[in-house]
Design brief:
Largest sheet: 5 strands, parallel
Radius of gyration: 18 Å
Oligomer: single chain
Shape: globular
Structural class: alpha/beta
């Protein structure tokens, strides 16, 4: 559909003004909010993720696309009260204890939202108990742990151990990521998955969903 294609192209190029203008027009023409999100914004962010993985675009372009997506969502979300939008998954994310870095975590959150996930961002420097509390409270399918400092990697293992002690480890898939994180480390602490960047985080979530 031409209008939704315009939304998609505007989002990919980071043209927030055009994306919002076109979304308003589509809504006035009677298009369903969920349809605009799924076929316009979510499909656009899937393309952005692929371009990022192939090094066709970089972080600045990804952030521009994310800004356009969020601008579009702000217009649509108030209209979703009467329309049940299918959520791909609920994901709790946060940076582990001792680590204040959040750029990578924020990018992961943006890409997951763009893929249709409900994202609950707990912030940075989080004790294992805060992750456990969030898993109990929100009952997410996934928990994403981020770390940029090598010295904070042990906090990922501590968090997984805390989930086990609380009896909720089997209720959630744990994904880890960050500059010093490797698949080998993920395996060693019995995480369910590892993502090298924000686009890969979306891939891991989709893969694990299909395995369930």
């Amino acid at each position: 559909m031409p209008g939704i294609e315009t939304v998609k192209e505007a989002t990919i190029s980071g043209n927030s003004e055009l994306a919002v203008h076109t979304i308003r027009q589509l809504l006035n023409d009677g298009f369903a909010p969920g349809e605009i999100i799924q076929q316009g914004l979510i499909e656009a962010m899937a393309i952005v993720g692929e371009k990022f993985k192939e090094n066709e675009i970089y972080v600045p372009e990804m952030l521009m696309a994310a800004k356009a997506m969020k601008s579009g969502l702000e217009i649509i979300k108030p209209l979703l009260l009467n329309e049940k939008l299918e959520i791909l998954a609920t994901v709790v994310i946060g940076t582990v204890k001792g680590d204040m870095h959040d750029i990578g975590k924020n990018l992961v959150g943006i890409m997951l939202e763009g893929a249709g996930c409900q994202v609950i961002d707990l912030g940075v420097d989080l004790e294992p108990a805060k992750f456990v509390k969030a898993v109990v409270e929100h009952k997410p399918q996934f928990l994403g742990l981020s770390a940029l400092l090598t010295t904070t990697l042990p906090a990922m293992k501590e968090t997984i151990e805390a989930l086990k002690e609380a009896g909720v480890r089997e209720n959630v898939k744990v994904l880890i990521g960050g500059a010093p994180v490797t698949q080998g480390y993920a395996d060693s602490i019995h995480a369910d998955g590892f993502a090298g960047n924000a686009a890969e985080a979306v891939d891991r979530v989709k893969e694990l969903l299909h395995c369930q």
